[in-house]
Amino acid sequence: MSLLSDLFNFNLSESTEKIIAEYIWVGGSGIDLRSKARTLPGPVNDPAKLPKWNYDGSSTNQAPGEDSEVILYPQAIFRDPFRRGKNILVICDVYTPAGEPLPTNKRHDAAKIFSHPDVAAEEPWYGIEQEYTLLQKDVNWPLGWPLGGFPGPQGPYYCGTGADKAYGRDIVDAHYKACLYAGINISGINGEVMPGQWEFQVGPSVGISAGDEIWAARYILERITEIAGAIVSFDPKPIPGDWNGAGAHTNYSTKSMRNEGGYEVIKKAIEKLGLRHKEHIAAYGTGNERRLTGRHETADINTFSWGVANRGSSIRVGRDTEKSGKGYFEDRRPASNMDPYVVTSMIAETTILWKP
User: Fold this and answer.
1) Where does this protein have coiled-coil stretches (predicted)?
2) CA-to-CA distance for 191 and 200, rounded, in angstroms?
3) Distance from C-alpha of 61 to C-alpha of 107, rounded to nearest angstrom
4) Which of 74, 168, 246, 272 is the most exposed place for a label (fewest CB within 10 A)?
5) For residue 292, how many C-alpha atoms fall within 13 Å in the half-sphere facing its CB?
6) Cα 68 from Cα 301, distance rounded (Å)
7) CA-based Rg of the chain, rounded to a whole angstrom?
8) Each residue's pLDDT tens digit, 192-221
9) Phi-psi label, residue 263: left if phi above 0, alpha if psi -120 to 50, beta otherwise
10) At residue 12, does pLDDT exceed 90?
């Protein structure tokens, strides 16, 4: 095993200019991540200089067997925390050989919204709080929970410390540092209310980069749990009953909201979000009805509400924002398994472009 570790970790730059690029894309379910690697003749920092590539879409539920070729378009580059050196992770989106985006390619439509002059002028900022649950391999039961049984009630676990409160911190810290190494704008981590559940935050990130960074961070987390022999779940309600679900609270602001008088802009934006509540809920993740029950720090899925410092509302405005008269708000509706390209672009489209 020591030899295997040595081979896994040695520095390629000592012997070759070539690098390894790991191409990453979203599979047919809309939440599964796929990847494969290729050798490049030297370092690359610009996605436009990376070659397009193809894969068998029939094996990812994205193309029929008789016409299975799907094309990968490189869109964002991150440093590879696993191979290190000058090796890279490449976030891609997916197209037919004729250049048409696949239905699962949510980045394409999001990029069109973020490139709209009115949206670009507002410089939309996002801070996404990605919650997830660590599971024991093979049994699909949260890490640290007794097999077939339950830990003590919620209360001591949120931001808790100690072997009886925090389960999987080594995985969480490894992920935190790996994301920083990769160049992801990860801004923090914390233990969540349900034991075995954690959260990382990405942002503030501008426009389409928020989606790129969340997908890259999810990929790195999947790889780290693979190494650790655990499973990461993005299910919005992994354990039924009196346990918190998992969301992806999305904090948002525009230039107008951040400037003087921004609080009035925020209130108008929230009013527009309320008018399109059903459309947003339909796009905010699968199984979200199991989470948005009106309990466990959520609003009921069928009712739109907002409030200052209220974690039981659909939209929460912070005390600081109310006090300063400008700032940001938090959309608490998105589920942990939401597509960040969909959620971020839909919020921008509704609040900036949509005319009721």
Assistant:
1) none
2) 9
3) 18
4) 272
5) 27
6) 38
7) 21
8) 999 999 999 999 999 999 999 999 999 999
9) alpha
10) no
Provide the token pair at 162.
């100690």
**Cα(302)–Cα(294) distance, rounded to whole angstroms?**
10
**Full-model pTM:** 0.96
Phi, psi of 322 (to 5 degrees): -60, -45
Mean pLDDT of 114-138: 97
| C-alpha to C-alpha distances, 299 to 241, 292, 349, nearest whole angstrom | 16, 6, 23
- CA gap 265, 325 in Å, rounded: 10
Contact 144, 195 (CB under 8 A): yes
Gap between the Cα atoms of 93 and 82, Å rounded = 22
Are the CB atoms for 266 and 256 separated by under 8 Å?
Answer: no
